[in-house]
Structure formats: C-alpha cells, structure tokens
C-alpha cells in the first residue's frame, strides 16, 4: 500500500545575516501540517550569523557565501538554488541587496520582511528613525522583492502602537513579535 502524503510543500530557501529569529520561526511554521513550504536551504552572507545554528539544529542544508564580489556570490547562490530545486526565497534579516539580474534569473517569488510600515522607512535603522520622528505607529511589512530597495508589492502589514516611553530596544522586540506572526500569514496568503 502506498503511503498517502499531504500536498507537496514548496521547497524554500531562507537568506539570513543575523540572529535568525525569523528563520527559526519559519522553520517551525514549515513543520506544521497546513504549511505550504518546506525549508530546504539556508544561505548566509556571513559565517558569524547566529541563525546558522537553527539550520544545524533542524538538519537543514546551509551555505555561507561571501559577498565580496557580488556577481560571483549571486552565481553561487543561483547554482545552489537550482541544485536544491528551490521555488521560493524568503529574506529574513538578509543584509545584502540582490541584483536585478539575480531576481530575473531566479524567476520565482522572493519575499522580504521589513521592520516598518513600508513605503515609510525603507533601509536600515528603521526603529531609530521612527522614534526620532515621533511617529505614533510603526510595524512590519512582508513584500515581494523587486529591483528597488524595500519597494516591491506589499503582501501584508501589521501595525504596532508606539508608547510614550518607547525606545529602540522595546520597539524592536514588539515588532519582532508581530513579524513572527506576519511572515507565515503572508506566505499562506500568496501560496494558498
């Protein structure tokens, strides 16, 4: 008798540069019954990324690719992606900008999570800038990656209220909590 397998999950690569809390969250999400993805590859631009430990813990193939020469780095990544039959890329705190050539060659969906309510506060140091400008709200955005930084089509956003005594650390924690809910929800939205 053949074993019944659920719907085939989409092979996904997660790109990281840091602590990997969104990676850890996505791995846990991928293991749930209704998740449309499986995480088959973790790519980091630095071997110092703490998040690589999650790849090891969950026995996921991982590659550290030096971005000193972007063209070669992207070639290597594309070859890894092809080898592993990856059909979705999730950027999770990946601190490198992918070239338009890479985006075109991959030719599948690339998602990113950004810690602000785009189109406001693209780029780095978002929490710092949000607090400095005395914003009442911030949040996070999951969007498609396009050739322009943090400018692709928005999939979902989550708003977070900024309290009077908010600091960068407290706001960052508050938003990260929402990121962990938003990323899986956005993936469900585009793949179901």
Give a structural overview.
With 192 residues, the protein is α/β, with parallel strands linked by helices. It folds into two domains: 9-107, Rossmann fold (3-Layer(aba) Sandwich), CATH 3.40.50.170; 115-192, Formyl transferase, N-terminal domain (Rossmann fold, 3-Layer(aba) Sandwich). Helices cover 35% and strands 23% of the residues. Helix 4 (100-106) links the parallel strand 4 and strand 5 (109-114). Helix 1 (21-30) packs parallel to helix 6. It is globular, with a radius of gyration of 17 Å. The relative contact order is 0.16. The mean pLDDT is 95.
SSE layout and pairing:
Blueprint: E1 10-16, H1 21-30, E2 37-44, H2 52-57, E3 61-64, H3 70-83, E4 88-91, H4 100-106, E5 109-114, H5 126-132, E6 137-144, E7 154-161, H6 168-191
Parallel strand pairs: 1-2, 1-4, 2-3, 4-5
Antiparallel strand pairs: 5-6, 6-7
